[in-house]
Amino acid sequence: LETYARCPFQYFLGTVLRLRPLEEPEDLLRISPLEKGSLVHEVLRRFVGTLPSGTLSPAAAADHRRALEEIANQELDAAEARGIAGAPRLWRADRTEILEDLARWLNRELAEAGAYERHAVEVAFGGRWSGTQASDLDTDLALEIPAGSRVLRFRGRVDRIDYTPGSGFRVIDYKTGKGSMLPRDGQLRGGQALQLPIYLRAGELILGIPAESGEAAYHVVSRAGRFKRVSFTGAALESAGDVLSRPEASR
C-alpha cells in the first residue's frame, strides 16, 4: 500500500509482475543491507526471546551483554559460513560495527527496561507465517480496516511487542539502515507511511488493549541511523480520523 501510494508503476512492476533486480554473487564485496538487516533481526529475536518473560534487568546488565555478544557471534559466524559476508577485510569492519551497534542498542534498552512488564518477539496475526515460532500472543484473527466501500484485510507479524497486561503496549519494528527515509512522529505521508498505524491496530487486536493506550515505533539499530526512533501513538491515530478507523476482527 505504501509503494502504491508512492508510485503505482513501481507497485505494478514489483507486486503484480514480481520483477526483481538480478543478483551477481561473484561481485559481492560486503554483506548486503538486506542480509545485514535479517542477521540483526535474528540476533535480537533470539536475545529477547531467551530473557525470562522477555524482561531486561539493569542488575543483570553484565549477563545480558555476554548473552547478546554470544548470540551475535554465532549468527555472524553462520553468515560468514553461508558466504554472504563479502570480502574478508570489509567483513571484519562490518562485523565489528554490528557488534558495537548491538552493544549500544542494549545500553539504551537497559536505560528504559522498566517501561513495560512483558515482551514478546515475532508475534503473528491473521494466520501463521511459515518459519516463525508460535508466540503466546499469536492470533488467527485477521485485521480488517474499512476503506471507503471496501475492507482491507491484513495479516503479518511484528518484530516485538512490549506490554503491560490491561494497561498499555508498544509495537516495535527494527530498522538497520540510516533511517533517512523514515517518516516523522505521527506522520501518514498521504498513505506512504502506513506500517506504524497498522501495527498499532494489530497490537490492539493481539492484546485486547485499546490503541489509545498504545504506541508503534521504528527503532533504528545502527550508529549510521543514530539509533533514531519514530513513534506513532494512539493520539496520532485518533487524529487520523476515518482514514484508519477502528477495525473489526475476523478469522
Class based on secondary structure composition and strand pairing: alpha+beta
Q: Which term fits the overall shape?
A: globular
Going across the major beta sheet, what is the strand order? 1-4-5-6-7
**How do the helices and strands follow one another from N- to C-terminus?**
HHHHHEEEEEHEEHE
Number of strands: 8
Instruction: Detail the poorly predicted runs.
Output: none
Instruction: Output the radius of gyration.
Output: 19 Å
Number of helices: 7
Q: Can you tag this structure with a few keywords?
A:
38% helix, alpha+beta, 20% strand, three-stranded antiparallel sheet
What's the gist of this structure?
The chain is α+β, with helices and mostly antiparallel strands. The chain contains seven helices and eight strands, in the order H-H-H-H-H-E-E-E-E-E-H-E-E-H-E. The protein has helices spanning 2-6, 8-16, 33-50, 61-81, 88-111, 195-207, 234-239; strands at 118-125, 142-147, 150-154, 156-164, 168-175, 214-220, 229-233, 248-250.
In words, what does this structure look like?
With 251 residues, this protein is an alpha+beta fold. Helix content is 38%, strand content 20%. Helix 4 runs antiparallel to helix 5. It is globular and about 55 Å long. The protein starts with a helix and ends with a strand. 28% of the residues are buried.
Strands, helices and their partners?
Elements: H1 2-6, H2 8-16, H3 33-50, H4 61-81, H5 88-111, E1 118-125, E2 142-147, E3 150-154, E4 156-164, E5 168-175, H6 195-207, E6 214-220, E7 229-233, H7 234-239, E8 248-250
Parallel strand pairs: 5-6
Antiparallel strand pairs: 1-4, 2-3, 2-8, 4-5, 6-7
Helix pairs in contact: 3-4, 4-5
